[in-house]
Amino acid sequence: MNNLDRWLLVPAFIIPAAVTAPAFAVQYMNVEQAQKVLFPNAEKFDGQVITLTAEQKAAIAERSGVRVRSSELKVWVASHAGKPIGWVLLDEVYGKHEFITYAVAIGVDGTVKGVEILDYRETHGSEVNNAKWRAQFVGKKSGDALKLDEDIKNISGATLSCKHLADGVKRLLATYAVVLK
To answer: In this predicted structure, what is the pLDDT of residue 97?
Structure first.
């Protein structure tokens, strides 16, 4: 084997390793933990699965500008002293290649109270779990832009995760306005 043949073997080992790099997965919290973080004063969480009609899906997509992938939505009504104080909505969006599972708290006033990442399965972009980045959503309501580099800051190296999470929150706010309000 001459030197040229040896050098040609290097890409044969590097390229398959790069193509088949394993995904990175972290579970930051489960649904119950997210509920307590998002509504620490809640005494009760009543869960339900809401099945969206074709008309509701169309209205949500029109209002948010984001396609509604699933007809089912997992929602918990948070209550304190027997009165509703808000909703926790569980959702998934694509990062770059894999799903990101997250929860959004929406208060009875229709504003975001918090966003928590439950499961992150991507190799890059986990910076979206940074509390300061997620805090940008607090106070947002249906109709707000929720666009990267406008009212939501982008994270270099996590652009798709940032964009898809912002779109997901925007879609959930529209879902609140169309279905839960």
So the answer is: 87
In sequence order, which residues have a C-beta less than 8 Å from that of residue 92 and are 6 or more positions away?
Answer: 99, 100, 101, 102
Residue 85 lies in domain: 29-126+158-181
What backbone phi and psi angles, to 5 degrees, belong to 79? -135, 155
Q: Tell whether 54 is covered by a domain.
A: yes
User: Is 14 domain-assigned?
Assistant: no
The letter for the amino acid at 2 is N
The number of helix segments (H) and strand segments (E) in the chain equals 5, 6
147 in a structural domain:
no
Tell me, yes or no, whether 115 lies in a domain. Answer: yes
Cβ–Cβ < 8 Å for 128, 159: no
Provide CB contacts within 8 A for 20, sequence distance 6+: none
pLDDT in tens, 24-66: 789 999 999 999 999 999 999 999 999 999 999 999 999 999 9
Tell me how many domains the chain contains: 1
Instruction: State how far the Cα of 78 lies from the Cα of 18, in Å rounded to an integer.
Output: 45
Amino acid 73 reads L
